[in-house]
Amino acid sequence: MSNDHSAAAAKTRATTRANTHRSGLGTWLDHHAYSLVASAGRMLRKPWSTALTIGVMALALALPLGLWSSLANIERFAGDVQEARQISVFLKPAIGLDRARALADEVRARADVAAVEWRTPEQGLAELKNAAGLGETLTSLDGNPLPSLLVVTPGGDEALLAAALAQLPEADVVQHDAAWRERLDGWLRFGGRLAWVLAAMLGLGALLVVGNTVRLDIQQRTDEIGVLQLLGAADGFIRRPFLYLGLGYGLLAGALALALLTAADLALREPLAELARSYGSDFALHGFSLPAASAIVLGAGLLGWLGAGLVTGHYLRQTRPTDT
């Protein structure tokens, strides 16, 4: 009998602990749900203030994001990296086709060469006719004045390879477009650094915008916060609605920034595509991928959460009652 009573008591205690655990978890979830709904309600009750805060944050986010997107498209427009590294070796006119073919095989066998494309004078003349629209003029020429051409893709140091190819007795002119590419790379590096600087400055501005908005909301609820502190409410309980408020500002601002950039992309895509087609290119603007867009929105939400947390934490440290 005693054993049955002890087992029943143990079972009752276990059930009580389980119910207490479920009750604590349910209370925690209820608090978060209430804070989320309350924050959304405060945003809806002040539509103009909310729209202004979100708009300022969205513009602060859109500027560096737009610059990053522009730099990515410029890199694509500059061409494939391997193509930009190609070295053109124009052979002397006296070099015959058999020797040009053998030379292409010799250059291809080098360890610092990734690929070699041999273009005959006939192929070069056909490409020139199609590219320049000078078919009738070139047809009237006696013979083919173009030499054989080797298009070499470096597999190592392109500058050293270009210097070595220039020493070949069969080489007449070696064209290596490294200077313009180095300058372009320099401009792209500068643009990337500028984007980071703008992101830091404007991100700080967005942080201050959220912080100031939350600070104004705190000032309007000073009495309510004071009562909660006197009743012993934890700082986390008081801070939670403001954190959700900052999170909401950030998420909406990130979504609006993406919408603005998408609208700019749609407005510029067709005119730029027409301009590219006039140069024989199929270049088109590319926007943000789905993972990148998701990361932008989540990052903006985290920025708003951080700004609200900093301001609310500072306020609570200043107003927390102390024991005397």
Quick synopsis:
With 324 residues, the protein is an alpha+beta fold.
**What kind of sheet is the major sheet?**
4 strands, antiparallel
Helical residue percent band: over 70%
Strand elements, count: 4
Specify the structural class: alpha+beta
Question: Which outline best applies?
Answer: elongated
Number of helices: 11
Q: H/E series, N to C? A: HHHEHEHHEHEHHHH
Strand content: 5-15%
**Poorly predicted runs of 5 or more residues:** 1-22
- Tally of discrete structural domains: 2
- Give the mean pLDDT: 75
Distance between the termini: 55 Å
Order the strands across the largest sheet as they lie in space: 2-3-1-4
Question: Cα-atom Rg, whole angstroms?
Answer: 34 Å
Task: Break the fold down into its secondary structure elements and pairings.
Elements: H1 2-45, H2 47-77, H3 81-84, E1 87-91, H4 97-108, E2 113-119, H5 121-132, H6 135-139, E3 149-154, H7 158-166, E4 171-176, H8 178-220, H9 222-230, H10 235-278, H11 290-319
Antiparallel strand pairs: 1-3, 1-4, 2-3
Helix pairs in contact: 1-10, 2-8, 2-10, 8-10, 8-11, 10-11
